[in-house]
C-alpha cells in the first residue's frame, strides 16, 4: 500500500511540471509587450521599462523564466523564490497574485460546494430511482431528462434559468453575490447539471450491474429484506465509482468555472482568470491555472488512494 | 428422426454456414405434438438453404441488428444526415419548406436503410442495388434542391432589426440586430459546428489509434512516455487552457479552433484505445494468430483493432457533441471564431445583452445547438447499448 501511494505521488510530479510549463509558455507567448501595455497617457521611461523587464525576468530565456517562477532557479536579489516557496508572483502593477487568489478562492469555493451538494443529492436520488427499477417509467424518465439536459450547453442553461427564475418568477437574484447564499443557489444548480447527469447515470449503471451479481442473489436467497439487500449489499459496492467521481469533480469545481461565474457575474477565480487573459496579466493567469492544476492533481491522487483502500485488487496489482 | 437429432441437424446446418445458432432455435418449433416433425423439417431446409434464419454473427453485425430496431438510433440518424447535409450545402436549406423536404428525404433514406425489408432486399439483389434504392430519396431531393435559390445570410435591412413575429412564413425565426434573416443565419451556423465536431474527433481518433495502439501493444518505455504525456494534457482544464491557447493565436478561424480542441482532447480517446488494446492483446485469438506467424501489424489490424475499437467509437460519437458544445462555449466567450464567421456560439454571445427584450436571438441558435449535441449523445448511447453484450 505504501509503495503504491509513493508511486502514484511520484507520477504526479512530472504531470504537474509538464502541465504548468505548457500554460506558462502559452501565457508568455501572448503577443504584445506587457510592459509597454502598462503605458498610460504618460509613457514610462525606457530605463524604468528595462528595470520592470528585469524584475519580471522577461529578458531571460523561457525555460529560465519558468524555473525562476517555479522556484528551482535562483532569482537575483531573493534567491529561490517561486511556487515551491509559496510565491505565486506579482502582477505588473506590483500586487501579489496570492492576495488576489486569497480574495477570489472563497467565492469560487462557495459556488463549488453549492454545486457539489446539488449534484450529490439530486444525482444520487435520480440514479437510485432509475437503477432500482430498471426499465420502469421512472428509469426511462430519468434517462430522457438527463440526456436532454446534458445536451443544452451550460451558457444556454444559465441564460434560460436567469430568464425564468430570475426575471419572470423573481425567485433568485439574477446575478452578483450581494444577496448572500441566495445568490449562489441558481449558479450552483447550473454549474452542477453536467456532473449531476453523470452521477445519476453512473449510480444507475453501477447499481443495475451490482443488483445482478451473485452475492445479491445469495443475499436474497438468505431471505433478507429488500431494504437490507439494497442498502447493505448493493449500494455499498455501487457507490465506489460514484464517490471517486465526486472527489475528482470537487477538484475540477474548485478550479473555477469560467462560464458560470461569467454569466452570473460572480467574482471568483474563473471570472478573474478570464479578465486577466484579456488584460494581459500573465502572472494572474499562470497563478490561477497552476492552482487549478494543483487541485486537480491532488484530487486525482486522493481518488487513486481511496480506490486502493476500497478495492484491494488495485493495490495488489 | 427424433427431436434431438432434428435439433442437431438444424444446428449443424447453421454452423456450417458460419451462422449464429440462437436464431435458428428461435425459429424452430417447440418439441412435442405430432406436427413437430414436419415443421422441423421445414425449418431445417430453410436454414440449409440460407434462408432468413441464418446470418453471420460478428460484433458489428449483431450491433447493427440491435441498432436497426432502436427507434432512438433511427431518429437521431435522420437528424445526423440532415445536419451533415445542411452543413455541406446550406443555401437550399435557407428556405424552410425546402429544409423540411430535406428532412423528409433524410427520414426516408434512413428508414429504408434500417428497415427489415431492406435487409431481405440486400440479400436477394445485392448491395449495389440496395444502396441505389436507399439513396434514391436523397438524390431526388438534392436534384430538386439545385433548382432552389437560397437566401444569403449577409443580406441586411436595418429596418428589420431584431423584429420577430410568431408563425411568420417568410422569416420564421425573425431578424438579428443587423436585420438579417435569422433562420438563414442559424442554418449557415450548422457548418462550423458540424465541421469542427467531426474534424476534431476524427483527428483525435486517428491519434488515439496510433498512439493508444502503440502504447498498449508495446508496453514498457514507449507506453510510459505516451501515457505520461497524456497525463499532462489531461491535467489541463479544457475551457481554461482553450482560452489561454486561443488567446495566443492572432487570427482565429475554423482550423485554429479545431487545432486547439484536438490538442486538448486526444488523451481521453488515447487512454480508451490503450486499455482496449492491452486487454485484447492477451486474448486467445491473438495468441493463435501469433502462433500462426502473423506479424504485429497484421495482428493489430485484423485481430485487435476491429474488436477493441468499439469503446473508442462509442466515446468518439459522444465527444463530437462535447466538442461542438466546447466550440460554442469558446466562441461565446469571445476566444473562438471571430466575426464575420457564422457560428451558433457567436450568435448566442451577441444575444446575451438582449435576452429579455429579444429572446428569439438566444432561443433559435441555442435550440439548434442543443439538438445537434443531443443527436450525437443519443447516437453514442445507442451504439454503446448495441456494442456492449453485457447490457443485452
Can you characterise this structure?
- The complex is a heterodimer of chains A (317) and B (392).
- Chain A contains 14 helices and no strands.
- The longest helix of chain A is centred in the middle third of the chain and has 36 residues, at 97-132.
- By secondary structure, chain A is mainly alpha-helical.
- By secondary structure, chain B is an all-alpha fold.
- Chain B has helices at 3-16, 21-27, 36-48, 59-68, 71-88, 90-93, 96-114, 116-125, 127-146, 182-217, 221-234, 238-248, 254-281, 284-291, 296-308, 310-333, 344-351, 360-387.
- The longest helix of chain B is centred in the middle third of the chain and has 36 residues, at 182-217.
- The model of chain B is unreliable at 1-51 (pLDDT under 50).
- The A-B interface holds A 11, 14-16, 18-19, 22-23, 26-27, 29-31, 147-148, 150-156, 159-160, 162-163, 167, 209, 252, 255-256, 258-259, 262-263, 270, 273-274, 277, 285, 289, 292-293, 296-297 and B 228-229, 231-233, 235-237, 239-241, 243-245, 247-248, 250, 321, 325, 328-329, 332-333, 335, 348, 352, 355-356, 359, 362, 366, 369-371, 373-374, 377-378, 381, 390.
Note the topology:
The complex is a heterodimer of chains A (317) and B (392).
Chain A: H1 2-27, H2 34-38, H3 46-55, H4 62-70, H5 97-132, H6 137-151, H7 154-168, H8 182-211, H9 214-221, H10 226-254, H11 258-263, H12 269-278, H13 282-310, H14 312-315
Helix pairs in contact in A: 1-13, 5-6, 5-8, 5-10, 5-13, 6-8, 7-8, 8-10, 9-10, 10-13, 12-13
Chain B: H1 3-16, H2 21-27, H3 36-48, H4 59-68, H5 71-88, H6 90-93, H7 96-114, H8 116-125, H9 127-146, H10 182-217, H11 221-234, H12 238-248, H13 254-281, H14 284-291, H15 296-308, H16 310-333, H17 344-351, H18 360-387
Helix pairs in contact in B: 1-3, 4-18, 5-7, 5-10, 5-18, 7-9, 8-9, 10-11, 10-13, 10-16, 10-18, 11-13, 12-13, 13-15, 13-16, 14-15, 16-17, 16-18, 17-18
